[in-house]
Amino acid sequence: MNNKASGQDKLEEIRLDLALEARELASQTYGDQIPGVTMEQSEQDGIRMSRIDVESDEGARAMGKLKGHYITIEVPGLRNKDSDLQDRVAKAFAKEFERFLEKVNIPKDAKVLVIGLGNWNVTPDALGPIVVENVMVTRHYFELMPDQVSPGYRQVSAIAPGVLGTTGIETSEVVQGVVEKSRPDLVIAVDALASKAIDRVNTTIQIADTGIHPGSGIGNKRKGVTQEILGVPVIAIGVPTVVYASTIVNNSIEMVMQHFRQQTSNTEYIFGALDKMNEQERLAMVREVLNPLGHDLLVTPKEIDQFIEDIANIIANGLNASLHEAVDVDNVAAYTH
């Protein structure tokens, strides 16, 4: 088996929610130039943007992601609960999301349905419902009193459909019913994701035009919320809120090994076979040990209650500013309710 084939097998074995992480893994096989994939990065005031376009089937296979556009916003400083930084991130998100709508040809008067995926009773999975609580909804005004709607607003509706374990109905089926009745031109689905990097948990926002599969980050196979299923474009917004215990163990091993490499070049004597394994081989080994014991837990930071509120408000503020021209992008925080 050649290196590229084995690289694709790794991507199939390890599902990555973040396109940026999928590209990092693919680059171990293909190098910086992945065929059919382009990436542009920029950073300003502690906010790092990565714009990835998967343009061909070859690129999709190499990345293990669907063809489409992906934007990742990384802000490590969000862990410090800096309110000024949160406002800057909301503004950056709003401007980036507005450009994204233009890139995927969504007109300024398109009717929008925001779907808050997840379980509001489980804090790490409550991102979508909290965003829905703070999104400025206007569809009822257009329906009941259209002559009183000021210029600069568009029709926006929102719903948090719950999860299969609570409702007994597939989330995708609930969304299909709402889409059929309300007839939006665009669906925005907000959901919690899983990351393979501890430092990206609660500090990263991904935007993608490929739809979303509820529960996929924690290994659940559910019917997707995608354009193919709903018949209208779907933009997914996700934030990693959990990480697997196996990932934490693997990252810890790597940090310990890096520490010893700074002290000595004879790390093979200290770590033996571990020193010859690459990252994915070590991760597979750790999972092989933890899974039979039921110890490959999903882990979230102890401050998750505040983190989830903060980043949900950032997304809601950004959506309000990007969807409604009348909302001032420089004062987005004033529009949450």
> Termini, distance in Å?
56 Å
Mean pLDDT: 88
Uncertain stretches: 1-13
Shape by Cα distribution: elongated
Family: Belongs to the peptidase A25 family.
Protein name: Germination protease
Pfam family, one: Peptidase_A25
Keywords: Hydrolase, Protease, Zymogen
Description:
- With 337 residues, the protein is of the alpha/beta class.
- It has a domain at 247-293.
- The chain contains 13 helices and 9 strands.
- The chain has helices spanning 3-13, 19-30, 57-63, 83-103, 127-134, 139-144, 164-167, 171-182, 227-230, 245-263, 267-271, 279-290, 304-323; strands spanning 37-44, 47-54, 68-74, 112-116, 156-159, 186-195, 204-208, 234-244, 298-299.
- Strands 1, 2, 3, 4, 5, 6, 7, 8 and 9 form a 9-stranded mixed sheet that branches.
- Helix 1 (3-13) runs antiparallel to helix 2 (19-30), helix 4 (83-103) packs across helix 13 (304-323) and helix 10 (245-263) packs across helix 12.
Question: What layout of secondary structure does this protein have?
Answer:
Layout (H helix, E strand, L loop, with lengths): L2 H11 L5 H12 L6 E8 L2 E8 L2 H7 L4 E7 L8 H21 L8 E5 L10 H8 L4 H6 L11 E4 L4 H4 L3 H12 L3 E10 L8 E5 L18 H4 L3 E11 H19 L3 H5 L7 H12 L7 E2 L4 H20 L14
Parallel strand pairs: 4-5, 4-6, 6-8
Antiparallel strand pairs: 1-2, 2-3, 3-7, 7-8, 8-9
Helix pairs in contact: 1-2, 4-13, 5-13, 10-12
